[in-house]
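Q: Can I see a sequence and its folded structure?
A: Here is a first one.
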Amino acid sequence: MIGNTDWWIHTRHNVDLVQTTHFGLIPVPYDFDYSGIINTPYATPANNLPISQVKTRFIKNYCHNAEAYSDAIDRFNQQKTAILTIFEEAEVLDKKHKKSSVKYIEDFYEIINDPVQFGRYLDESCEFVNTIPNEAPK
């Protein structure tokens, strides 16, 4: 959703694992200055990723078909208004950044709710992720 590729689960780069009773281990990423929604002037994707801008969304996950994401998509859709409201009402953001953040989130919803677009997005990411070694990029 926020275009964050600056994490790596294998080496826990910018991600912690939190143990929960109900869901087991949950990865919790942090350090978002290289995410597309923040879009800092110095942010660039890792050299080994097939994207040239941090605003370009790229899923770092092993291959699953679109159906595997249906529960997550439903949850995102249920929270859409609340998520957008966070950015629209954020006092720390000026008008320009509110507008660009809301647009970035709305673009995410457009992707996940269009089966063709979402399938293409998964296919492009899947091709890359299945070829990476089991260690973090340097």
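Q: Show me another, different protein.
A: A second, unrelated one:
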Amino acid sequence: MQVTKVDIDKANAILKLSVKKEDFEPKIKKTLNEYGKNAEIKGFRKGHVPKGMIRKMYGNNILMDTINSMLSDEVNKFIVENKIDVLGHPIPKDGQAFDMDINSLKDFDFEYELGIAPEFELTYLAKKPKFEREVPTIEEKMVDEEVERMQKQLGTVEDVDTIEDDTDMLTVKFDALDADGNVAENGISNSTSISLEMIEDKKVAKTLKKLKKGEILDLDVFTTFSQDEESIAKHILNSDKATVGDSKFRMTLEGIKRTMPAKMDEEFFKKIDPKGEMKTEEDLRAKIKEDVGTYFSKQADNKMFNKVYENLIAETKLDLPDEFLKRWIRLTNEKPITEEQVVAEYPAFRNNLIWSLIVKNIKKDAGIDVTQEEIKTKTAEGIKAQFAQYGMADFGGEELESFVNNMIQKEEHVNQTRDAILEEKIFAYLKDNITIKDKSVSLEEFNKQDK
């Protein structure tokens, strides 16, 4: 089989394959013989089906499969041997048609379209472009709120007589009312827990806040709570919307529970820091600031990385085989896709493709790679972090190794971890090749700019 590459331009090429009868006829005969040995057809013993019948029944399918397999193998072999950097996969040139007849084998020519990846240098990075890194300011209010949250998390739940806080947990009983406003016989009756935060009707919330244990309030449940009607019926009334019907209910306040914040004593600090390094409120606030600072720094990095990503794509002018790629998308999409969809989605696809070529370029120039050992280390770090959330900060040894070995057997996990490590390395490379200036902004400004 003769294969010839014809360059259309820098981004497009054609592979011409001249296929001779003698290239595929022996393979077809061999496959037909194998079918004959194994074919089980009613009226014939296995292996004794006439060759003519085998040829008639399976011949054209075998011919087509053989030709397709040969073409695919030869195209891939040519690309590898000639070190052609293609985009997507080769696709048959449009408009080709020829008869495949097992009884009339003959020579034929076939053509594939190729999209060629461009060669380029990242000249944009050579200029050390400047980027502003916006870092949210850590306000004392944030630290106060986190201290309060931790105290409540480790606090105790106590029964109280009055409602003072929107987060107080209220034990209430709902009884369906009849048309006269009385509790309906055999009507829906359910006890549950709610908080003022769940109530959308502000008037009801204000009235409820004045109630004492044992007092009642008649209300429309569907207009009172913020959830949708199906959720209200299910989670508050333990029923369904169709059964609830009229939404008028009598709510009886049966009890009030409040989480009392834990005192900052020795026991409190032992719970949040088993190692005993934290002993005072000042220590706690310093640790919170450190953790929040680390989190904000990562968020600032991510936001800046998005700007670098956008600028790199915009500044890296590449000639891509756009029409080839659009056709390739249509042919390889799992579900049928219209021309309008291709046109609408292609800009995002093109940007992702340019980014993948940039990453490939950086990996080559910087010698960046991800090793199996790095994947194992990253996996171990993730597992240890998970166990630390459950108070097992010292999880390790053979047990950790067993977890790691189990995880790295999963292809999806390995691929995701490799991508995460590669992203970190690419970002580290980019940070070394740009000029960064930090700018302090409020958290509100930071989040507003993010939208």
